[in-house]
Amino acid sequence: MAAGAMATGGKTAGWVAAGAMDAGAMDAGAPVRRRPGRPRDEDMDGQIVAATLEIIDAGEEVTVSRVVARSGVSRAALYRRWPSLTTLIAAALDVGRTIPPEYPDGVDLREALVDGFGLAGNSVTLAVSGYSEERFRQRIRLVMSDRALQKAYWQSHVSRRRVPLLNALRAGIARGELRADLDVEACFDAIAGTAYYQIVVRGDRMDDPAVAARLRAAVDMIWRGMVV
């Protein structure tokens, strides 16, 4: 099992494997549905997420028992707040990341691509989103070892961060700056895929100036195929 991974078997799908929830109640990316009552304690939510992140950073397997012990909350409180262990881990992996604001009308789209992928300087700036490269690598290890976590993290976090840049590209098509037949999702994936290749396949660090140079060259090449 990979370091920091979740318990094996059905325990990634929901709390049913931990004896807590009907397996069909919620899917991995769904929000928690709570009955009317006391408002949700955001401080307790923070305790749970912080404890989960500490377990991940320590390279330990994330289990209900470890989260309860490290956070100091009860199992009942944990089950009430999260539909599954998978969604909890996805939230923990996203700590420090934000959804960027929408781009203004008429923004320079090439510069938006460069800035959006952290390529404004001599290295790739992951810190622009408050995310260290070590946390980035840990996230890759975890999601690649668990498809349910991968899908939950995509649906609830990653896909939402793409929206502002995708909207800016769609606006560029509407203004006639970009090709009318442009697939904006494919363009985003092509650039992001180049970035992931540096870490996952080449094993390079994102603070290497050569990595930033390769990514800027990729953006330039893809950009030439995007414009009218």
List keywords for this structure.
single chain, 228 residues, mainly alpha, Tetracycline Repressor, domain 2, 9 helices
Can you put this structure into words, describing what you see?
54% of the residues lie in helices and 0% in strands. It contains nine helices and no strands. The model is unreliable at 1-5, 7-13 and 17-34 (pLDDT under 50).
The DSSP helix count reads 9
**Poorly predicted spans:** 1-5, 7-13, 17-34
The rounded Rg comes to 20 Å
Category by helix and strand content = mainly alpha
User: In CATH, what is the homologous superfamily of the largest domain?
Assistant: Tetracycline Repressor, domain 2
Q: What spatial form do the alpha-carbon principal axes imply? A: elongated
Count the domains.
Answer: 2
Main sheet characteristics? none
CATH topology of the largest domain: Tetracycline Repressor, domain 2
- According to DSSP, the number of beta strands is 0
Distance between the termini: 49 Å
CATH architecture of the largest domain: Orthogonal Bundle
Average pLDDT confidence is 82
**In percent, how much strand structure appears in the residues?**
under 5%
CATH classification class of the largest domain: Mainly Alpha
Helix percent reads: 40-55%
- N to C succession of SSEs: HHHHHHHHH
